[in-house]
Amino acid sequence: LAQSAVLPEGIVDAERTAFANTGNISSMATIAGVHPEHTMSDALLSHLGERVTKIDDQDASILGWTCGNMVSTTRQVARFYWSLLGTRTLLSPKMLAEMSRLRTLSPPSWSAGKINYGLGLMLQQSSFIKYLQGPPVDGDWGVYLGHGGVTYGFLSEQGWIPQLNATFSITTNDERYLLFRLACDLIQLGAWHSHGLSVLPFMCGDLAIGSIGAVLASQGTQEIRA
Fold first, then answer.
1. What are 80-90's pLDDT values in tens digits?
2. Alpha carbon separation from 119 to 3, 11, 55, 60 (Å, rounded)
3. Rounded to an integer, what distance in angstroms lies between the CA atom of residue 119 and that of residue 91?
């Protein structure tokens, strides 16, 4: 199956979006990824000087299929989610309803009790404090509908923020950062920009720092970059 064949015309720029199935990763990605020696949770303990693997010259087949092999820009991904969940013009109402039929993950699933999952969509709370309290509540500040991406050397988060009527995409080339913390800060920035809310009823915690690109695409002409 040629995955690029399903890309909707006029929504995603095919020249800036590719599916890395084979070939050298560096021929498609514009920046190398960093894969740490330790797991993500261990790496958060700040293992200074730890051994890392540069994800650049390997064959793209290591990235997986449908779970982490799409190479694109944050702008393109945000635009895709805007068509899917903003204007809702990408799929039929029936198909989108099926995708949005969410259930809270149960044990022994990954993130059991913390994420509501559907068909390619998940409802997630970006505030780590609220995340620990239980399933996300649709309509709460900090909650977005979308999906994350995880593969060797790269992480991403993207989706639709209901209160802002906006979509976003953020990515990092280092597996040691938890992007929901960046998503939380991005939502706070959007709330201040759109609603004048300088203090929101949720807490983001410390900002994770990495090589990050982010963009919000909304109905208006203004964009927010972080």
1. 999 999 999 99
2. 18, 21, 29, 26
3. 13
